[in-house]
Write a structure and sequence with these properties.
The complex is a heterotrimer. Chain B is of the alpha/beta class. Chain B has helices spanning 22-37, 52-56, 61-68, 85-98, 119-124, 139-154, 158-172, 186-190, 254-267, 284-294, 302-307, 324-328, 335-348; strands at residues 4-11, 44-48, 76-79, 105-111, 194-196, 199-200, 210-218, 230-239, 276-278, 361-368, 373-381. Chain B folds into 2 domains: 4-118 and 208-224, Thiolase/Chalcone synthase (Peroxisomal Thiolase, Chain A, domain 1), CATH 3.40.47; 125-205 and 233-381, 3-Layer(aba) Sandwich (Peroxisomal Thiolase, Chain A, domain 1). A 9-stranded mixed beta sheet of chain B has the order 3-2-4-7-1-8-11-10-9, sandwiched between helices. In chain B, strands 5-6 form a two-stranded antiparallel ribbon. In chain C, strand 5 and strand 6 form a beta hairpin. The chains are: A alpha/beta, B alpha/beta, C mainly beta.
Chain lengths: 350, 382, 129
């Protein structure tokens, strides 16, 4: 049986408060915070991108796994903000991580669920004995359009998972995916900001796929909501995952560890993977864990995992998600944020 | 080797010389040197120039300049060692005459920096491309790191750095060829805009166009050309690690120390014998570090020497009476030769308001990059 | 940044690959053909630890055009536990906090990008440890 042998996350250190963005656009900070259940989000520096985040998360995963990176036979990064349109983020990551050249690499895109799809494929290659270890990463530095609702939540961060068959930190008990063509949120080639269908992104998109995938994996395995110690769902804002979780019969205590969006924002392909890393940081042996992602377009991937006896021994080998969220951070003004996110218009000369 | 003299000099004003091209700057300075010696045939030309190629797209300066001087056929070549190009051109000319291979050689330097090139990027080519420039360093940035190291190791203060600029401008105000001929106050220096902490605008030498030339000949023939020759008693050149991170002590300029002892050994002199010196003050901190590496002060002691007024006209060892690179200007390749021109005038008693009384033995120290090359010459009144 | 020149430096920049001189033990970063201390040409390949101490620094206010958006940015010489020194920017901290003796971790970062169509240049920067 294959499972997670190493995991790591990285969240940039800069922050901006929802209130600061609200002030910029003449909105009421309290309504925003209440409506989205979001206090602040992470902001990548001018020197950070999906690749730098993937490398640092990958390094932590290798630390926790304690394996020779050269044994990793495949690496997939899922993101909707790959720095190049053509040239894989993955090749830069393998060089930085000391992986290869005998390795499979490709970049994945599926809005916010590219990361979990990358994880699924990595897991499956190991399960099928095609490679000894494989890494799946979800990382993003997505843009929210100015004065749009998504500007409050679009943030940066990611997590990396190494799958193998020995010395597991968490077993993968089952996987499931639910996908359809649902145009709730998209970005055309060459456009800087995405567009979305407003309230259409709710029931027909997020809720339908998250609940269908979760129901699908529960039906397939026979588990009930109360069997799980921890549950993490994709977090486009603070409200949706709590609402979906409640609707599906999960309790607040099951959802709270993975619910990192409140201080992190929505790291898109990094969202549920980073929430999962926060869970693995504190999970105890035999804890049953459920993760369901969501990517616009649309689809959801679900995994059921079980923590092993080895997990507590490896948790401390790399920074925890909580430390990245709770340690003192630097808060930006809207102007600094706009500069870092390159929202300020410059000449397009080379 | 036979003894070598400098018998005449030529120099353009230093500044933003919009009307004058690279080649014409050279010709102006070279012709002045030739006319002052009443010479029309020479045996060779060396042209100190950091980067005609990057500033104005022009390499192959040897034939270009000989041609424009009306001397096509004469052996000529460019010499490069970043900001020490002029000093190395002088050294090359010196050895050619000293060896007996040539009699009359023009050692020149020229730089045209204001024709629209990205000066910061061009100057950065004197630093380590792969390990320094790649990370966003600038020249002021490198010297700023040297300054912080010096302040950390020796307690040198921001006021100490600023005092150097005040002195430079005091001298430059008395130099008709200088780019900046106004004095500045300590407050003006300390409050000028920040470039790279702790260095502010008025701690940094400017961007300048200019050219200078000196004519060398064997000492035994000097009387044919002038009744006030000076002789070159010693020349020393040394390299240091190119990258600042590779220096044993970022606050100490090993190449300066080594080039000085080589020049002093050849000349048979020590710091006590020097009456006046031109040193490479590309940034105020450089002057302090150079004085220490040369032995005019112990490490950490140059600030005190400066604050005591000893390096100003009237002091024990006037430094950069020309105004230095700071106030006179720094057309990169020309600086090393311009330093020699200042010492020539000092030793001849022709330095006007900048005159050091009874100057007999003088020195010029020219440096490349963040101290990766240094060339020193010792001169004596004949 | 020409591609071949960039590609050649990947091991140095991405993995901090260095060489330990078999003659005198000096750790040379980036790796070279000849040891600057003892002139021998036999090295043991190694990677630097991703941490170090600030030796000296500055904060660049007027930077090269490509870097001007990031100004003011701290730049420092950092010494790793192996005794190698390298020049890196210091990120994610108030420039006023950078000083000799500061401990940093070396993190993978984007160093520069050639406009909108050129290649992206990566490397390491120091972050407060």
């Amino acid at each position: 049986m294959a499972g997670i042998v190493g995991y790591g996350a990285f969240v940039p250190r800069n922050r901006i408060k929802a209130a600061e963005i609200a002030k910029q656009w003449g909105k009421d900070p309290k309504s925003i915070e209440r409506g989205l259940l979001l206090k602040e989000k992470s902001v990548p520096g001018l020197d950070e991108d999906t690749i730098t985040i993937s490398v640092e998360a990958g390094r932590s995963a290798i630390e926790r796994a304690g394996i020779d990176p050269n044994l990793i036979g495949a690496l997939y990064i899922g993101s909707e903000s790959h720095p190049y349109a053509v040239k894989p983020s993955g090749t830069i990551a393998i060089e930085a991580l000391g992986i290869g050249p005998e390795v499979h690499v490709a970049d994945f895109e599926f809005a916010c669920k590219a990361g979990t799809e990358a994880m699924f494929v990595a897991y499956s290659l190991v399960e099928a004995d095609k490679v000894e270890y494989a890494m799946g990463i979800g990382a993003d530095t997505s843009q929210g359009a100015p004065n749009d609702a998504l500007e409050f939540s679009a943030s940066a961060g990611g997590a990396a998972y190494i799958f193998g068959k020995n010395n597991l930190l968490a077993e993968v008990l089952e996987t499931y995916s639910y996908t359809s063509d649902t145009p709730d949120f998209w970005r055309r080639e060459g456009e800087f900001y995405p567009r979305h269908g407003g309230r259409f992104t709710g029931e027909p998109a997020y809720f339908k796929h998250v609940t269908s995938a979760t129901k699908g994996i529960l039906d397939k395995t026979g588990y009930k909501p109360s069997d799980f110690r921890h549950v993490v769902l994709h977090m486009p804002n603070g409200k949706f995952p709590l609402s979906a979780g409640k609707r599906m019969g999960f309790k607040k205590e099951q959802l709270e560890v993975g619910w990192v969006v409140n201080k992190m924002g929505n790291t898109y392909s990094g969202s549920s993977p980073t929430g999962l890393a926060a869970i693995l940081d504190i999970a105890k042996p035999d804890d049953l864990i459920l993760i369901t992602s969501f990517g616009s377009g649309a689809g959801s991937d679900s995994f059921i995992l079980k923590a092993t006896d080895l997990l507590p021994k490896r948790q401390g080998l790399a920074p925890t998600v909580r430390s990245m969220l709770d340690n003192p951070r630097r808060y930006l003004t809207y102007g600094e944020y706009a500069k870092y996110r390159e929202k300020i218009i410059l000449n397009t000369g080379a | 080797m036979r003894e070598v003299a400098i018998v005449s000099a030529g120099m353009t004003p230093f500044g933003e010389l919009w009307e004058t091209s690279l080649r014409d700057l050279f010709v102006q300075a070279a012709r002045e040197a030739l006319e002052n010696a009443q010479v029309s045939q020479i045996d060779g030309i060396y042209i100190g120039n950091m980067s005609g190629g990057q500033f104005v797209g022009q390499e192959h300066l040897g034939p270009l300049m000989a041609d424009h001087l009306g001397m096509t056929g004469v052996p000529a070549a460019r010499v490069e060692s970043a900001c020490a190009s002029g000093g190395v051109a002088l050294r090359t000319a010196f050895f050619e005459v000293a060896s007996g291979a040539s009699d009359l050689v023009l050692a020149t330097g020229v730089e045209k920096m204001n024709d629209g090139a990205d000066v910061t990027n061009v100057l950065a080519t004197a630093a380590d491309q792969e390990t320094e420039v790649y990370h966003g360093v600038t020249f002021p940035g490198l010297y700023a790191m040297i300054a912080h190291a010096h302040m950390h190791a020796h307690g040198t203060t921001f006021e100490d750095l600023s005092a150097v600029s005040v002195k430079s401008h005091y001298h430059g105000a008395r130099n008709p060829r200088a780019q900046f001929r106004m004095e500045v106050t300590l407050e003006q220096v300390m409050n000028s805009s920040m470039v790279a902490e702790p260095l502010r605008l008025l701690h940094c030498s400017p961007v300048t166009d200019g050219a200078a030339a000196v004519l060398l000949c064997p000492l035994e023939r000097a009387a044919e050309f002038t009744d006030k020759p000076i002789k070159i008693r010693g020349s020393g050149l040394a390299t240091g690690s190119l990258a600042l991170a590779d220096r044993p002590d970022p606050a100490f300029l090993d190449s300066v120390s080594l080039s000085t002892s080589r020049a002093f050994d050849m000349a048979g002199v020590s710091t006590a014998d020097i009456d006046v010196a031109e040193v490479h003050d590309c940034f105020s901190i450089a002057e302090l570090c150079v004085l220490e590496a040369m032995g005019f002060a112990k490490p950490g002691g140059a600030a005190e020497l400066t604050q005591a007024g000893e390096t100003k006209l009237g002091g024990k060892i006037p430094i950069n009476t020309s105004g230095g690179l700071k106030s006179k200007g720094h057309p990169v390749g020309a600086t090393g030769i311009a330093q020699a021109v200042e010492i020539l005038e000092q030793l001849r008693g022709e330095a006007g308001k900048r005159q050091v009384k009874n100057a007999t033995i003088g020195l010029a120290q020219n440096m490349g990059g963040s101290g990766a090359s240094s060339v020193v010459h010792v001169f004596e009144r004949v | 940044m020409p591609s071949p020149r960039y590609w050649r430096e990947i091991p140095t920049r991405y993995r901090l690959e260095a060489g330990r001189c078999k003659g005198c033990g000096k750790v040379v970063y980036p790796a070279r053909l000849v040891c600057p201390s003892c002139e021998k040409t036999d090295f043991e390949p190694m990677q630097l630890s991703r941490k170090g101490t600030v030796v000296t620094y500055t904060v660049i206010h007027v930077g090269p055009d490509d870097f001007q958006m990031e100004a003011p940015y701290p730049l420092a010489i950092v010494e790793t536990p192996e005794g190698a020194r390298l020049m890196v920017q210091i990120a994610d901290c108030d420039p006023a906090d950078v000083k000799p003796g500061m401990e940093v971790a070396l993190e993978f970062r984007k160093i520069n990008a050639e406009g909108h169509s050129g290649i992206i240049c990566y490397g390491h920067k120091g972050v407060p440890a």
